[in-house]
Structures are given as C-alpha cells and as structure tokens.
Amino acid sequence: METNQFDLVNEMYRLIQAAEAKNIQIRAFGGLAVQVHNKKNHPLFMREYADLDFIVSSKQRREFEAFMPEMGYYPDKEVNLLFGNHRQIYYTPETKVDIFVGKFEMCHRIPLENRLMLHPLTIPLAELLLSKAQILELNRKDALDIISILLNNETGADDDGKINQQIINQLFSEDWGLYKTTTINLQRVEDMVSKDDLTLTQDERDLVISRVHEIKDGFDKIQKPLPWQLRDRVGTRVKWYMDVEEVEQ
C-alpha cells in the first residue's frame, strides 16, 4: 500500500541522511525530487507519490546493498539478480524504492556517476529535467513535472540552483537521440502551457516558455560534433531511443 505523503517525504530524508552517515551518496529523482525544487509551492504541481526513486554511485553499489536491509528494506531478489548492476528494487510493507546505479537509463541514458554530490538531496537540475524530458511517451504528470522545474528554476552556466545549460549541451552533443526526444517534449510542454486549462498566470506561462527557448537556443548556438551532424541527417528514419526495460514485478 502507499504511505501517506508526509511519511514518504520523511522517508526520503531519512534514507539520504542515514546513507550520508555511512559515506554512501544516494540522491533522489522522480516526482518527489521535482517537488523539492518547487520553490514557490505552486498548487498545480502538488500530487500524491507512490514510491521513492534514488540513484547511487556504481562504486558504492555493494555498500548500498548492505545498507538497505539495515534500514528495514528487503530486496526484490529476482530483479536485483537480473539487473542489479544498473537497476534495483527494495520494499517495505509500506513502500517501494526504485534504484538506478551510476546512471539514469530508460528511453535514453543520462550519466550521473560523478555528479551526485552537487545537491544534498536530488540529482542536479539539468539531469532532473532531462530524466523527465527523455520519456518518449510523455504523460500529463511528467509534463507537469517539466513545467514545475522550468517555472521554479532558471537556466545558467552552473549547478548552483540552476538548470545547467552546459551540461545539457554536453549531453545533447553526445546523444542525438536524447536531444531529439527532449526537444520534442519541450515543444509539447510549450504547447501545453500556451493553452488555458492550466492554473498558471500569464507571467508564469511566459517564464516557462522563455526557459524552453533558452534551452533550445543555447544548444542551437554551439558547434555540433561531426558524429552528431551525421546522425542528424539520418533523423527519425532510424530508431533513436531505447525500449524501456520492464523490471516491475
């Protein structure tokens, strides 16, 4: 069954702090991580969350596997045996914890091994945004998460409370597919924000749209590597995304 919202938020803090005490770095992603950065507490983005999502360094995988039972969680033995080097699941009677190891990997791969220390609770804002924008079949919930990130956080050249444009440019340059899916979804978000069915002021709509354009324009202005240019010529005639590996039981 689901925990109540208060318990789930507290559990996120409890696990991160207990891991830090053992020098294990885990950072949240997913809806609760987006809510951490909902600085204005905008009611449009308030919702229930069913479970917890974390990323742990691959270098600390073994320590983490020993840590979770100490915290009252039991592993999904089948999933962790089959996928444990990059994906793990743990349970209590109240909730589930979904773990990615070293990188976020669904429709696209987003490396995080060396960037987990940049925020005390969540993965950095650039990667948090991309973890939502990389979803090929974007639903309303995930689109609202993207809007929340864009509304509450400015773009910039570093990770200090900003969506780091340099990291986005780097990841786009290395992966045309990630660029393509993200830009498709940013356009979907812009179209969604432009309609009247969201409880946003005109200033809020304009701010979200301006940040969509900042991200797109920021990448458009840089020199693209030759492999990216060649892949761009092929376009969507060739599959540009990975099929999501189903690990749920």
Protein architecture, described:
By secondary structure, the chain is α/β, with parallel strands linked by helices. It has a single domain (5-237), classed as Beta Polymerase, domain 2 (2-Layer Sandwich). It is built from 10 helices and 9 strands. The chain has helices spanning 5-21, 31-36, 61-70, 77-83, 125-133, 140-152, 165-174, 176-194, 202-220, 226-234, and strands spanning 26-28, 52-56, 74-75, 87-91, 96-101, 103-105, 109-111, 155-156, 163-164. The strands form 3 sheets. A 5-stranded mixed β-sheet has the order 1-2-5-4-3. A two-stranded antiparallel ribbon has the order 6-7. Strands 8-9 form a two-stranded parallel ribbon. A hairpin with a 3-residue loop joins strand 6 and strand 7 (109-111). Helix 5 (125-133) packs antiparallel against helix 6 (140-152), helix 7 packs across helix 8 (176-194) and helix 8 (176-194) packs antiparallel against helix 9. The chain is globular. It starts with a helix and ends in a 15-residue tail after the last helix.
CATH class: Alpha Beta
End-to-end separation in angstroms reads 15 Å
Round the Cα radius of gyration to an integer and report it: 18 Å
Strand order of the largest sheet: 1-2-5-4-3
CATH architecture: 2-Layer Sandwich
Tell me the number of helical segments per DSSP (H or I, 4 or more residues long).
Answer: 10
Q: Average pLDDT, to the nearest integer? A: 94
Strand content: 5-15%
Proportion in helices? 40-55%
CATH T-level topology: Beta Polymerase, domain 2
Biggest beta sheet summary: 5 strands, mixed
Shape: globular
Number of domains: 1
User: What is the H/E order?
Assistant: HEHEHEHEEEEHHEEHHHH
